Fold this protein.
Amino acid sequence: MVTRSTRNLILLGATGSIGRSTLAVLRAHPEAFRLTGIAAYSSVSVLLEICREFSPKRVCLVDPGAAERFQSQVDDSSIEILSGQSGLTELAAAADADIVVNAVVGAAGLRASLATVAAGIPLALANKESLVAGGPLFQEAIAVGKPPILPIDSEHSALWQVLNGERRESIRRILLTASGGPFRQLPTDAFADITVEEALAHPTWQMGPKITVDSATLVNKGLEVIEAVNLFQVPIDAIEIVVHPQSIIHSMIEFVDSSIVAQLSRPTMVLPIRYALFWPDRVPGDDGRIDWNELRSLTFEPPDWERFPALGLAVEVARRGGTAPAIYNAANETAVAAFLERSIGFIEIPRIIERTLEASTLVDHPSLDDILTADATARETARRGMEKVKW
């Protein structure tokens, strides 16, 4: 068993699916981590429960009204209560933090990730949008590995594990696996009738609503392609998507000698979270363990680019670079929110992304202000486009 001193951990996005899985890891290893700060958007009741169990010193609710409600209900008057994006950023760079887990959903997590890296704190990253929208801003930290950015996405964790001890120049191809989502075999003429409930019924993963819809459109895989380009510093043409419905192989790397190395486990986020938190060590755990007496087959197929046009758009965006990924992500977040509110249909999501990209002016070498401006402008462009959609 690995022994090390107890480390202070900050958890951003504590009430989502990744946040809950992170808390499960902390419960299993109470001697390893001290939860000193938590953040969520507005889930007062859940954060109160977490406070009673883990006694963090700082709590941030991004919604100021929720922060006021939390303050009126919390039992421990010594807890420091923060609010807004500024509070989230302050918490992400806490001076006593030994590691920060960013599980915030969407581009809202970008500033927090930048603050963590700027403070020199190891960043366990589930907020893929940080590297999608802000990829150019993280390149120096990624190149030198200080502070380390520790990927929590199952696919990127798999690639990270496979690359352990290998040279980047030995990579021939990254094989990024995808389950294919719930509509992998649905005829395209039926996509217009897809309901919110059907889109939220993922065949292999239990996730929050936004990422589940992204998995149904394969936008999530597109975001992961962009993230992989930035995180592993490989050209887009070195990444290939492989549909693998069983979600047992979480990704593979083909090396220049034609060897292919893969990471396998049952679908669970506990395993990649635990790996990131304890890196460079491994600790015992049965989450994800495969029963080879029950597993009968692993199948593979190419993605259907026609059925899932948003995936092809992501590849184009990754090749284009600059502010294009931020625009792609912002348009998608806006469209998915509208779909979940039943304001637009499922098939409108990739159309809105494409229209927004076509209407946007790109910046090749963006600053943070350029990225934030592109994000805000893309959301407004997407909203205007949705007003023209009859649904």
